[in-house]
């Protein structure tokens, strides 16, 4: 680092000043900017039902992103989340073929997600293997199992009441998924920012050995985070399957990229140690607004992915370029 | 260390031979020389890509954009061929390597100059490169009948009983074996991955070495892009989708440590052949091709478990309880 890092300010910045300069504020400004640009670009944008539809673009991904944010803050990563969705959805589809009730289906989805998370946890925390390769492996394995079970077939025939999770509305235009997203945002915000567990997650991300010697059970915390990520993938699988009404082995393909992008865009350091849940929430809105706005302008999905990719690199590159340019 | 490496390659070779032996007991035709040559030829793209990926992983990075790079370069080559059928294959091969290297250099610059974690950079460029294919091709396919005969014939042209595709893979193995073991740049890759701080004190520019690793990986992906498109005689947005996972799998199976510094060209080649034999054997032993994804996933997990456990050094126990908790 350069010598400029070492100077000690003679006056601390006021909390307000600090907040104004934070990543979350910048992101919020971007979100508002995109919102205004969208409403100018398309006459169909400012419509309560359209906006409500737009939330489906990000609610499922954001549910996983909350757990992923904690995992990345702790210095690990899980690239298998989209494959967990595929496996959980396949299991639910198989259960639906034998006329399982809606409650059973949800339990099946959640427990498969939890089991997949436990499998990752055993490999990473139990055996001490690097999470990035392990989850690249389980990414093939979990989706591979879906392919073995389904091949080129698809599961359909979910019970009618199962459709509520992905298609139901709690009140007027407020969908069930959006309510779930909001509740989970609050829960994860409290876990990360207000509990000892959250402090432990930051401590592990900054210095795992130091955390261990401060009495934090590093592997237990990390295992819980992998379990949570698996569970949230299960929750997302329930919502996505319910919304689509069918299961193919390619369900949610490439979603891990969008989840990681959302987390990194939200200001979480990919190397661990810092990041906030409010940041991830705003990032979810930014990505949702961008994809929805481009969709209204008839931009095809694959071109949108260019924007997502550029966004991922851009948000990390720009502050660094700015720093380089100034110092 | 050298002994350990050679023994790891020995184990892998033995595993491949045992696997071939088991298949041969039921299906002797599979191990006929002609069929083995076909298996090698079919695995050649994976071998070429695995060599590039190995260099990147050696320097503590990872390149997830190789398959997208391959697809984009392949599409550009196909479109050049359609637009100007007269352009000789040599020029197209050169364009493929240069374009691939350029795409790799873009990854490398972001890693070197801006210090962005390689996994983030290549996850991003992976989608960007795929998206660009759609933009330049409008989502259309370039089909066999639109390509010139010379364009399609090159990877199939036989010399000394082996197709050009196989010869190119062998040529790359030789070139990169020499590069990695006999040049300062090759040794620098190992130094950067083994101990970046020590590498800096020996006068090696860590970021620059990583940049060159990405350029090599990109150039090899570009070369494979042309070979892939001409061999299968079709180019579209989704070719080689997800192939980067097979490439990483080949490296991990080949004993290349994901933490950098350990690995060899031989390991990468054997890792690729291991996957290649499995892939080609599945239809022969009557297993649905849908099993392949789960099998390569399991192979990655088993390989990483074996490699990491073998290479682990135990720390000193100062606090018995703390050690117990970890």
UniProtKB/TrEMBL annotation, chain A:
<feature type="transmembrane region" description="Helical">
    <location>
        <begin position="302"/>
        <end position="322"/>
    </location>
</feature>
<comment type="subunit">
    <text>The complex is composed of two ATP-binding proteins (LsrA), two transmembrane proteins (LsrC and LsrD) and a solute-binding protein (LsrB).</text>
</comment>
<keyword id="KW-0472">Membrane</keyword>
<dbReference type="Pfam" id="PF02653">
    <property type="entry name" value="BPD_transp_2"/>
</dbReference>
<feature type="transmembrane region" description="Helical">
    <location>
        <begin position="100"/>
        <end position="123"/>
    </location>
</feature>
<keyword id="KW-0812">Transmembrane</keyword>
<feature type="transmembrane region" description="Helical">
    <location>
        <begin position="170"/>
        <end position="191"/>
    </location>
</feature>
<feature type="transmembrane region" description="Helical">
    <location>
        <begin position="129"/>
        <end position="150"/>
    </location>
</feature>
<keyword id="KW-1003">Cell membrane</keyword>
<comment type="function">
    <text>Part of the ABC transporter complex LsrABCD involved in autoinducer 2 (AI-2) import. Probably responsible for the translocation of the substrate across the membrane.</text>
</comment>
<feature type="transmembrane region" description="Helical">
    <location>
        <begin position="251"/>
        <end position="272"/>
    </location>
</feature>
<dbReference type="GO" id="GO:0005886">
    <property type="term" value="C:plasma membrane"/>
</dbReference>
<feature type="transmembrane region" description="Helical">
    <location>
        <begin position="26"/>
        <end position="46"/>
    </location>
</feature>
<keyword id="KW-0813">Transport</keyword>
<feature type="transmembrane region" description="Helical">
    <location>
        <begin position="223"/>
        <end position="245"/>
    </location>
</feature>
<protein>
    <recommendedName>
        <fullName>Autoinducer 2 import system permease protein LsrD</fullName>
    </recommendedName>
</protein>
<keyword id="KW-0997">Cell inner membrane</keyword>
<feature type="transmembrane region" description="Helical">
    <location>
        <begin position="66"/>
        <end position="88"/>
    </location>
</feature>
<keyword id="KW-1133">Transmembrane helix</keyword>
<dbReference type="GO" id="GO:0022857">
    <property type="term" value="F:transmembrane transporter activity"/>
</dbReference>
<dbReference type="InterPro" id="IPR001851">
    <property type="entry name" value="ABC_transp_permease"/>
</dbReference>
UniProtKB/TrEMBL annotation, chain B:
<keyword id="KW-1003">Cell membrane</keyword>
<keyword id="KW-0812">Transmembrane</keyword>
<dbReference type="InterPro" id="IPR001851">
    <property type="entry name" value="ABC_transp_permease"/>
</dbReference>
<keyword id="KW-0472">Membrane</keyword>
<dbReference type="GO" id="GO:0005886">
    <property type="term" value="C:plasma membrane"/>
</dbReference>
<feature type="transmembrane region" description="Helical">
    <location>
        <begin position="291"/>
        <end position="310"/>
    </location>
</feature>
<keyword id="KW-1133">Transmembrane helix</keyword>
<feature type="transmembrane region" description="Helical">
    <location>
        <begin position="43"/>
        <end position="59"/>
    </location>
</feature>
<feature type="transmembrane region" description="Helical">
    <location>
        <begin position="90"/>
        <end position="112"/>
    </location>
</feature>
<feature type="transmembrane region" description="Helical">
    <location>
        <begin position="119"/>
        <end position="137"/>
    </location>
</feature>
<protein>
    <submittedName>
        <fullName>Ribose import permease protein RbsC</fullName>
    </submittedName>
</protein>
<feature type="transmembrane region" description="Helical">
    <location>
        <begin position="211"/>
        <end position="229"/>
    </location>
</feature>
<feature type="transmembrane region" description="Helical">
    <location>
        <begin position="157"/>
        <end position="179"/>
    </location>
</feature>
<dbReference type="GO" id="GO:0022857">
    <property type="term" value="F:transmembrane transporter activity"/>
</dbReference>
<dbReference type="Pfam" id="PF02653">
    <property type="entry name" value="BPD_transp_2"/>
</dbReference>
<feature type="transmembrane region" description="Helical">
    <location>
        <begin position="12"/>
        <end position="31"/>
    </location>
</feature>
<feature type="transmembrane region" description="Helical">
    <location>
        <begin position="235"/>
        <end position="258"/>
    </location>
</feature>
């Amino acid at each position: 680092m350069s010598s400029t890092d070492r100077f000690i300010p003679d006056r601390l910045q006021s909390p307000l000043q600090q907040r104004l300069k934070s990543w979350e504020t910048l992101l919020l400004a971007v979100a508002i900017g995109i919102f205004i640009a969208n409403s100018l670009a398309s006459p169909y944008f400012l419509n309560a039902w359209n906006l409500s539809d737009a939330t489906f673009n990000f609610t499922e991904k954001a549910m996983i992103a909350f757990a992923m944010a904690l995992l990345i803050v702790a210095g690990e990563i899980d690239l298998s989340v989209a494959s967990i969705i595929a496996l959980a959805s396949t299991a639910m589809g198989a259960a639906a073929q034998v006329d399982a009730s809606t409650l059973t289906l949800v339990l099946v989805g959640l427990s498969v997600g939890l089991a997949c998370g436990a499998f990752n946890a055993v490999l990473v925390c139990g055996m001490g293997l690097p999470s990035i390769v392990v989850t690249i492996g389980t990414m093939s394995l979990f989706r591979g199992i879906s392919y073995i079970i389904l091949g080129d077939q698809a599961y359909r025939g979910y019970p009618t009441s199962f459709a509520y999770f992905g298609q139901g509305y709690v009140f007027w235009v407020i969908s069930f998924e959006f309510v779930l997203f909001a509740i989970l945002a609050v829960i994860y915000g409290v876990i990360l920012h207000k509990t000892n567990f959250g402090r432990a997650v930051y401590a592990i991300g900054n210095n795992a050995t130091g955390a261990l010697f401060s009495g934090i059970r590093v592997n237990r915390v990390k295992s819980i985070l992998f379990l949570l990520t698996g569970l949230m993938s299960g929750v997302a699988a329930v919502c996505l399957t319910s919304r689509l009404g069918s299961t193919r082995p390619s369900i949610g393909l490439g979603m891990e990229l969008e989840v990681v992008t959302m987390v990194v865009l939200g200001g979480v350091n990919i190397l661990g140690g810092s990041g906030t849940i409010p940041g991830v929430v705003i990032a979810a809105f930014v990505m949702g607004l961008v994809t929805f706005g481009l969709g209204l302008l008839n931009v095809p999905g694959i071109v949108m992915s260019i924007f997502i990719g550029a966004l991922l690199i851009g948000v990390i590159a720009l502050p660094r370029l700015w720093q380089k340019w100034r110092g | 260390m050298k002994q350990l490496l050679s023994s790891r390659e020995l184990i892998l070779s033995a595993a491949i031979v045992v696997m071939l032996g088991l298949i041969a007991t039921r299906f002797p035709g599979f191990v006929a020389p002609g069929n083995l040559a076909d298996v090698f030829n079919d695995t050649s793209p994976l071998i070429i890509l695995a060599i590039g990926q190995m260099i990147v992983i050696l320097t503590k990075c990872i390149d997830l954009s190789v398959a997208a790079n391959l697809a984009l370069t392949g599409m550009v080559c196909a479109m050049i061929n359609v637009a100007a059928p007269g352009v000789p294959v040599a020029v197209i091969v050169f364009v493929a390597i240069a374009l691939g290297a350029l795409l790799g250099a873009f990854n490398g610059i972001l890693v070197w100059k801006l210090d962005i974690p390689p996994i983030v950079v290549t996850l991003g460029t992976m989608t960007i490169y795929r998206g660009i294919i759609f933009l330049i091709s409008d989502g259309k396919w370039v089909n066999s009948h639109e390509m010139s005969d010379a364009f399609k014939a090159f990877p199939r042209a036989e010399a000394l009983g082996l197709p050009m595709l196989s010869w190119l893979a062998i040529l790359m193995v030789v070139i990169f074996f020499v590069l990695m073991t006999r040049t300062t740049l090759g040794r620098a890759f190992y130094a950067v991955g083994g101990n970046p701080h020590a590498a800096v004190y020996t006068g090696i520019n860590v970021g620059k070495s990583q940049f060159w690793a990405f350029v090599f990986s990109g150039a090899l992906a570009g070369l494979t892009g042309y070979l892939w498109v001409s061999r299968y005689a079709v180019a579209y947005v989704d070719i080689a989708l997800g192939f980067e996972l097979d490439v990483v799998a080949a490296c991990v199976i080949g004993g290349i440590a994901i933490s950098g510094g350990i690995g060899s060209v031989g390991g990468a080649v054997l890792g690729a052949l291991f996957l290649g034999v499995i892939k080609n054997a599945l239809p022969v032993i009557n297993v649905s091709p849908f099993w392949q994804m789960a099998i390569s996933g399991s192979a990655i997990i088993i390989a990483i478990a074996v490699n990491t456990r073998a290479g682990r050094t135990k720390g000193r126990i100062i606090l018995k309880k703390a050690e117990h908790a970890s």
